[in-house]
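Q: What does the predicted 3D structure of YafY family transcriptional regulator look like?
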Amino acid sequence: MSRAARLLELLQALRRRRRPVSAAALAEETGVSARSIYRDIATLRAQGARIEGEAGIGYVLRPGFFLPPLSFTEDEVDALILGLRLVARRGDETLKAAAAEALAKIEAVLPPGAAEDAAANGMMAGPAREAPHLAVLRRAIAEEQRLRLDYTDKKAARTRRVVWPVAIGFFETAEVLVAWCETRQGFRHFRLDRIAEAAPEGGRYPRRRRVLLAAWRVEQEMEGS
């Protein structure tokens, strides 16, 4: 295994843990000596990785550090390009720009021949549906903010809801907002193309989004069983 690949493997081993892990445990997992782990930790720190801890105590990687991809297989390139092209067609303006920038970065780190193949990649994304409130919904999800929705249901009835946005699902036929509805006191799914208006209602919702998302998943499993 090359040194670069070993550093990436060590970084991934640290990312999988939220608590400090000893050099001995990292050495056993990566198949090198503890002495090599100490050297590799020093190298990663020199490259900007926020690794806290020391010998005899353990190490933990703080969020916010990313190494550039070392290499991609042909299938991995296809998957990445297809995903980014879908985002570019179905995201808001910020996501579209981010997808284009990410695709440019990926092409920049590919070998010359692979970069040319990526530019002519056969993975295509279909036309997008209109989702004018996507940016507002994404921001509310990220900030765990309550939203007011003017919504038209499948019976063409217009309602106003105050919701706690949890996630957005991109499906073949529609984009759907998953949210806890204060009016219905339960999880509801709102098609983005039926949202006439989405605006901040004010204040964070009282439960953490990750808790709500876990509860929604449990509910979906129960309904599917």
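A (community wiki): The structure tokens above were generated from the sequence. The domain at 3-61 is CATH 1.10.10.10 (Arc Repressor Mutant, subunit A). The radius of gyration is 22 Å.
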